[in-house]
What we know:
172 residues, alpha/beta, 7-stranded mixed sheet, 6 helices
Amino acid sequence: MNMIKRMFTISLLSLLVMFFLSFSASVEKVLAEVTTGIDIGEKASRFKLLTVDGKEIELESFAKGKITLLVFGATWCPACRHEIPLLNEYYSDFKDKGLNVLGIDIQESAKKVRSFIKKKGINYPMVLDSNADVARLYKVIGIPLNIVLDKSGVIIYKEIELPDKELLKKLL
């Protein structure tokens, strides 16, 4: 009888240990996914995304030697829609002075975004983050999210609000 109790206790403890080990590994994995990304003062992580027309834009070559404004958003987002006239203005006023603007649409179809670009008269390039991989990488927890990269690709601004036009003038 004593032997049976010992065997039962050892089996139960083994199961508990396996359960807690598997749970702690999955918690670490989830936390690692949440904490990965890019912050102010760090060099922007590379990514490649497609435009609505299927052309590939690679951040490293797109932003090389230019001030770059990355704008994460979606067509259904009222605050994102509100920014578009200012983004068009920023791009028109500063593109010849070295400003790049790149709209990054999160998890929407090319057809929907293409129609939105036409309807809203967006004059800067837009890419599709179909699986939200880049949004996760850059820790996007709310949209719009505006990120400014300096000429060497370092993040110098990361806010929900658009950067002030004066900030962009200074950087250019």
